[in-house]
């Protein structure tokens, strides 16, 4: 992956290249950014630039042996670490049996979210971790000589999933670096990292992508129209990993229709429509259920933004804006927090494997009562 393939973050890329050119490469670095910001993409581009045999001012060459090996995800001096789960019967908990799957994911793109990874692994969130065995394996690999004679790069995705005993092993690697090695931690929750690791790494903060950047990235990566990209970038709040996931599932327009029908049913307490809606919701896959609830949260949030005339915070497609123009009068400061809570709890229930139909019936009744809460006059 070259810097040219990274969405946005041009200035940050230039800063990283500058450090390489002036031989100020920190041995341990922490790329921190929220999901979909592109922290992993930047770390990959940086790794490729570090090992490129013929880099230009602005990027790795893309054609040397090292760059080609990066493109195929088969670079002998690039080592990966990521959370996985210990398969039954597996003696040592190392990532070896998941490396193939990781490679496939990385060949598809660097904008990977935890949900995408969980889906590939067929695991649940609770099982994912980076093991002590893995830490030992990593120190063994990094102790080997560099294959091409240049930098050895280790990229660790989501180091916050390490337990303390594992983190202490990695701490040793940070404190006693092997020769010509760069450790790149790519974290979404740096606050959950061991403080002793945090204090010893150079921080590279990767800010969220703007809506326009995210939309442009979607057009390029998901080959959707600019109009659809705008809608997806808005509803995912610039999180490119989420937007790509949504793009894969289809456009967000069917969700708007579903939401509008549902709100009408809830407002009028139309029993039949509520039951039908719950059945339809129950028949969706768990990811689609979560996506819809996420979308519903987005629309509720946007309804209230409109009240305060904060035009620049409004992130809606034309169809959504037309719908909210009428709907937003039902959302006000006396019910918005409870509505958000109800949707977030439903999201947590779905994520926790509660039956979707039951979640939706319960949620619909709560929403009915909340929509009927009158706005106080103040
Ligand atoms: Zn190259």
Q: Might you state the CATH topology name of the largest domain? A: Rossmann fold
In the predicted model, the low-confidence regions spanning at least 5 consecutive residues are none
Shape: elongated
Q: Tell me the domain tally.
A: 3
- Mean of residue pLDDT values: 89
The major beta sheet can be summarized as: 5 strands, parallel
Number of DSSP-assigned strands: 5
| Order of secondary-structure elements | HEHHEHHHEHEHEHHHHHHHHH
Any ligands, ions or cofactors bound here, and which?
Answer: zinc ion
Q: Reading side by side through the largest sheet, how are the strands ordered? A: 2-3-4-1-5
CATH structural architecture of the largest domain:
3-Layer(aba) Sandwich
- CATH class of the largest domain, named Alpha Beta
Number of helices: 17
Structural class: alpha/beta
Cα(first) to Cα(last) distance is: 55 Å
What is the percentage of strand-forming residues?
5-15%
CATH superfamily of the largest domain: P-loop containing nucleotide triphosphate hydrolases
């Amino acid at each position: 992956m070259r810097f040219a393939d990274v969405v946005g973050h041009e200035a940050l890329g230039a800063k990283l290249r500058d450090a390489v050119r002036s031989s100020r490469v920190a041995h341990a670095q922490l790329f921190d950014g929220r999901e979909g910001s592109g922290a992993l993409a930047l770390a990959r581009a940086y790794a490729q630039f570090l090992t490129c045999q013929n880099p230009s001012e602005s990027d790795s060459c893309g054609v040397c042996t090292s760059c080609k090996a990066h493109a195929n995800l088969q670079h002998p001096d690039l080592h990966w670490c990521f959370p996985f789960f210990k398969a039954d019967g597996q003696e040592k908990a190392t990532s070896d049996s998941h490396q193939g799957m990781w490679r496939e994911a990385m060949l598809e793109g660097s904008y990977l979210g935890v949900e995408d990874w969980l889906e590939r692994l067929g695991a649940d969130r609770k099982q994912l971790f980076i093991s002590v065995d893995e830490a030992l394996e990593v120190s063994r690999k990094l102790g080997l000589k560099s294959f091409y004679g240049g930098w050895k790069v280790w990229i660790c995705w989501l180091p916050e999933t390490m337990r303390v005993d594992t983190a202490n092993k990695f701490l040793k690697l940070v404190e006693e670096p092997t020769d010509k090695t760069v450790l790149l931690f790519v974290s979404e929750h740096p606050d959950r990292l061991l403080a002793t690791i945090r204090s010893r790494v150079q921080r590279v903060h990767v800010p969220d992508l703007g809506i326009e950047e995210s939309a442009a990235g979607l057009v390029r990566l998901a080959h959707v129209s600019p109009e659809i990209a705008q809608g997806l970038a808005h509803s995912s709040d610039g999180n490119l990993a989420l937007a790509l996931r949504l793009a894969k599932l289809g456009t967000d327009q069917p969700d708007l229709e579903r939401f509008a029908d549902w709100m009408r049913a809830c407002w009028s307490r139309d029993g039949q429509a509520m039951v039908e809606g719950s059945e339809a919701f129950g028949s969706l896959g768990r990811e689609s259920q979560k996506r819809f609830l996420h979308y519903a949260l987005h629309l509720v949030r946007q309804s209230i933004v409109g009240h305060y005339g904060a035009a620049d915070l409004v992130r809606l497609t034309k169809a959504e804006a037309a719908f909210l123009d009428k709907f937003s009068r039902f959302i006000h400061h006396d019910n918005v927090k409870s509505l958000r809570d109800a949707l977030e709890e439903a999201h947590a229930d779905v994520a926790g494997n509660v039956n979707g139909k039951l979640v939706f019936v319960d949620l619909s009744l709560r929403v009915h009562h909340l929509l009927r809460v009158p706005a106080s006059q103040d």
